[in-house]
């Protein structure tokens, strides 16, 4: 309890600093430093700062996928527990903490609902292939530049309404192209072309800071 | 796994849905087979996953319930759950030219040499794998064979594993991905020399006329 209370009081200034006084790069470095503290020292205060920020966000993401509050809560806890247990595997050069957590939560969800445990193992295998790739950071598929988080937030917010809707239906409801086409009475080809345009727009934002 | 330089790749909409976890399983397995030999598509996949990270980050924040915080603190001393038994066969010979891409191995086995083909039509053999969503098929089509013109009622992903074919969209060889949807009608003609072996994932039925539709009936329940 003492640890929890102490951490709660620390969260507020950290959040304020993140949103008001520091550029996104600084926030990105701070998250990475917190994960490193978890990995190196099993620092519970640092873990709770990560937990307090991300567990509600991961839970909301999972809630959209399944619509089941109990499952979303259970898998969000599991995802954050993975951060504690696998902090040493996190590579801040390769992805932001939110992207890492997105992958963890998505994989947990797919394994659970599809009951095909090869999904997670396949993703881990593909990630390992990237690690074995060229040493030049610019060529590594996983390398993520530091300024991207702010850019992607802005770019998502600025997408045309229909593209934003299809992006949300894909990522937050895990709806296939066919399911989106049926629900919106939209030709399959139109669904794909909207998603393609949205991806190209967001890609440009992600790449322009390289 | 061997590195390839495919010339035909996963479409952006397909990559995005793969990253979102929204591709039906049969299509996701075939997409993963391509990703395992294509670093360009893996780069794209990482970008698509960053969109997911951005969306998670943009969710409204609130302090978690005290009960949930206490529950997670109580679990921090747990030993990590043991990794589940691997669905992948334990021995994969990396340099075996007949080895199947690893993402296909849980569904079809280790090697092209050990596949148990079923005769489907003259010059066409097939294996259907069991998946939770969609249809997942391995096809072997004799060299120099012209397939019937067909369209698609939904999406189809086809990854070429061996041999090659040509159609209205171009030349497709080992490592290439044909990412098709209902706007495309095509007539693949396999290259001379070796049989074309490919793996296809579909989320709906194909549209064939005539003899091939009849041949496929037991596979798809057309």
UniProtKB/TrEMBL annotation, chain A:
Domain RNA polymerase sigma factor 70 region 4 type stretches: 151-200
CDD domains per the UniProt record, alphabetical: Sigma70_r4 (cd06171)
SUPFAM superfamilies: Sigma2 domain of RNA polymerase sigma factors, Sigma3 and sigma4 domains of RNA polymerase sigma factors
Domain of life of the organism encoding this protein: Bacteria
GO molecular function (one): DNA binding
GO biological-process terms attached to the record: DNA-templated transcription initiation
Record's keyword annotation contains Transcription: yes
Span of domain RNA polymerase sigma-70 region: 50-116
InterPro entries membership: RNA_pol_sigma-70-like, RNA_pol_sigma-70_dom, RNA_pol_sigma70_ECF_CS, RNA_pol_sigma70_r2, RNA_pol_sigma70_r4_t2, RNA_pol_sigma_r2, RNA_pol_sigma_r3/r4-like, WH-like_DNA-bd_sf
Alphabetically ordered keywords of this record: DNA-binding, Sigma factor, Transcription, Transcription regulation
Family: Belongs to the sigma-70 factor family. ECF subfamily.
Protein name: RNA polymerase sigma factor
Species of the source: Frateuria terrea
TrEMBL record, chain B:
Domain spans labelled ChrR-like cupin: 113-199
Gene3D superfamilies cross-referenced by the UniProt entry: Anti-sigma factor, zinc-finger domain, Jelly Rolls
Signal peptide (from-to): none
InterPro entries in the cross-refs: Anti-sigma_ChrR, Anti_sigma_zinc_sf, ChrR-like_cupin_dom, RmlC-like_jellyroll, RmlC_Cupin_sf
Record NCBIfam families: anti_sig_ChrR (TIGR02451)
Name this polypeptide is given: Anti-ECFsigma factor, ChrR
């Amino acid at each position: 309890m003492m640890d929890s209370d102490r951490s709660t009081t620390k969260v507020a200034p950290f959040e304020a600093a993140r949103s008001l006084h520091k550029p996104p790069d600084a926030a990105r470095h701070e998250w990475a430093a917190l994960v490193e503290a978890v990995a190196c020292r099993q620092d519970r205060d640092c873990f709770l700062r990560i937990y307090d920020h991300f567990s509600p966000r991961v839970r909301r993401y999972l809630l959209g996928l399944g619509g089941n509050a109990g499952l979303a809560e259970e898998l969000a806890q599991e995802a954050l527990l993975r951060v504690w247990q696998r902090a040493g595997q996190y590579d801040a050069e390769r992805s932001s903490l939110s992207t890492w957590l997105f992958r963890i939560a998505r994989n947990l969800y797919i394994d659970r609902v599809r009951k095909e445990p090869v999904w997670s193992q396949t993703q881990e295998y593909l990630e390992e292939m990237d690690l074995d790739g060229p040493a030049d950071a610019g060529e590594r598929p996983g390398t993520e530049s530091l300024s991207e988080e702010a850019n992607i937030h802005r770019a998502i917010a600025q997408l045309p309404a229909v593209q934003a809707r299809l992006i949300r239906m894909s990522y937050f409801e895990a709806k296939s192209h066919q399911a989106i086409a049926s629900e919106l009475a939209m030709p399959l080809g139109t669904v794909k072309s909207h998603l393609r345009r949205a991806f190209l727009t967001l890609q440009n934002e992600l790449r322009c800071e390289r | 796994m061997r590195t390839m330089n495919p010339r035909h790749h996963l479409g952006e909409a397909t990559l995005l849905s793969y990253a979102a976890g929204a591709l039906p399983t049969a299509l996701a397995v075939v997409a993963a087979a391509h990703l395992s030999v294509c670093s360009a598509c893996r780069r794209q996949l990482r970008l698509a996953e960053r969109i997911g990270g951005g969306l998670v980050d943009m969710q409204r924040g609130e302090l978690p319930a005290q009960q949930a915080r206490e529950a997670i603190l109580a679990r921090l001393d747990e030993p990590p759950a043991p990794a589940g038994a691997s669905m992948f066969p334990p021995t994969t010979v990396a340099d075996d030219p007949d080895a199947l891409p690893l993402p296909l191995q849980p569904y079809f086995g280790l090697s092209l040499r050990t596949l148990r083909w079923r005769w489907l039509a003259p010059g066409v053999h097939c294996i259907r794998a069991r998946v939770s969503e969609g249809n997942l098929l391995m096809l072997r089509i004799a060299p120099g064979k012209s397939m019937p013109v067909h369209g698609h009622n939904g999406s189809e992903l086809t990854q070429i594993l061996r041999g090659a074919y040509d159609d209205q969209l171009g030349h497709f060889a080992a490592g290439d991905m044909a990412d098709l949807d209902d706007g495309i009608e095509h007539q693949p003609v396999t290259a001379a020399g070796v049989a074309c072996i490919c793996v296809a994932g579909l989320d709906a039925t194909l549209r064939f006329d005539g003899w091939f539709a009849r041949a496929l009936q037991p596979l798809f329940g057309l």
